[in-house]
Design a protein that fits this description.
Length: 114
């Protein structure tokens, strides 16, 4: 069974930076596209960044140029480096494999103070 554990969230001032991590257990991630999502209360969970098996990233317009997704297959970990954070980035962040039916982790909360 695959388990996803997100970490690295916290409280940061507007304009600040954070690095999120997603540790995957129960499988090697080498063959999977991976992604970061975020969700605010009452809204759907949105995919904001993905990375394919070759390491090619893709981003939604809302985070393009500010966020960087990366992967370390040996460590079975996905990262999201976030800079120039805005209050609109405040959410719970999750990782998962978009094409797989894995259970969701608990996410990590990012709070951005203006």
């Amino acid at each position: 069974q695959v388990h996803l554990v997100e970490s690295g969230g916290g409280v940061v001032q507007s304009g600040g930076s954070l690095r999120l991590s997603c540790a995957v257990s129960g499988t090697w991630i080498t063959i999977y596209q991976m992604a970061w999502y975020r969700q605010t209360p009452g809204k759907f969970r949105d995919l904001i960044a993905s990375i394919d098996v070759s390491g090619r990233p893709n981003y939604t317009d809302a985070v393009k140029g500010r966020f960087t997704i990366s992967r370390d297959n040996d460590k079975r970990t996905i990262y999201l480096d976030m800079r120039s954070l805005k209050p609109d980035d405040m959410a719970t962040y999750f990782c998962n494999a978009p094409e797989e039916n894995w259970s969701w982790g608990r996410g990590t909360q990012v709070t951005v103070s203006s």
